[in-house]
Amino acid sequence: MSREILMPALTPTMEEGTLARWHVRPGDSVKPGQVIAEIETDKSVLELEALEGGEIGELMVEEGAEGVAVDSVIATLLEPGAAPAPEADEPLASTEHSDGGVSPGVGRARPGSSPQPRSQVSASTPAMPSTEGRGGRVPASPAARRIAREYGIDISTLNGTGPRGRIVAADIEAALALRSAAEAVTGIPATGTAPTAGTAPTAGTAPTAGTMPAPGLETPFEELSLSTLGKTMARRMAESKTTIPHFHCSIDVNVEATLRLRTELNEAENGPRLSLNDFVVHAAARALRDTPRMNVQYRDDRLIRFRRVDIAVAVAVEEG
After folding, report:
1. SS3 string of 236-254?
2. Most buried residue among 31, 54, 123, 288 by CB atoms closer than 10 A?
3. Cβ–Cβ contacts within 10 Å for residue 29, how many?
4. What domains lie within the chain, and their CATH numbers?
């Protein structure tokens, strides 16, 4: 008897992830708590542990597969001593869409095998324009629909990047960033529809993703793929730049006392290892606390004044 191993929701907002690496192979014995895979979310890479012991039967998703939906089957676990399904050089199984179409699946077809109780989701299906499902309903996640309603985004105008073209929350956030950029350039509020990637910009509007002019022969270039984390970082930075007013000011500060304090704290046993960034963030937090009128956000013709200070700091990682 086999049991299904599902793609877990490793964060409260996770809808899909990338299966970065398998630590097991079919036939391997695993114990509860043993790391069997690495799952990459939009924020980090986390380890997936086995909840119970047994033998790995079949790996349904290949390493590096992106867009694996939460709760989709990624592997099977056999009872100890049970023989795994024999390998067969068969093409990947197919998964039927709700509209009757067929897309590549992620598991290998087994001669004479019965279908799994859960449908297999194609983890490596590329993004495609969203299509209507049953009853003309555009496939979209609940979170995406909620954000779209809140900001007046018409999801039928978007290209989904989720499994089989499904609209996910990240697509709505990207549309909001594009709309804000267009408003900043034209000074005219955008309508409820958002420009989709790959469309040509009209006069007086901001270019959208995919509209960069084709480079000439004298400007060779190469396209580099981004990890899930890298895509999220790029999207967040673009959103920050286009939706938050920026202004710059500078002052001269004598930090000799700060450097001495940092040295004393770092020399303490079992103490934290502080950098100058820690003191800068602390100073910014103190400034916002002492000047609450600056700890605000403009939203829907209103100012939202926050009761606490929350500062995010970008850090350098290998992905970007």
Report:
1. HHHHHHHHCCCCCCCCCCC
2. 123
3. 13
4. 2-108 (2.40.50.100), 126-198 (no CATH), 249-320 (no CATH)
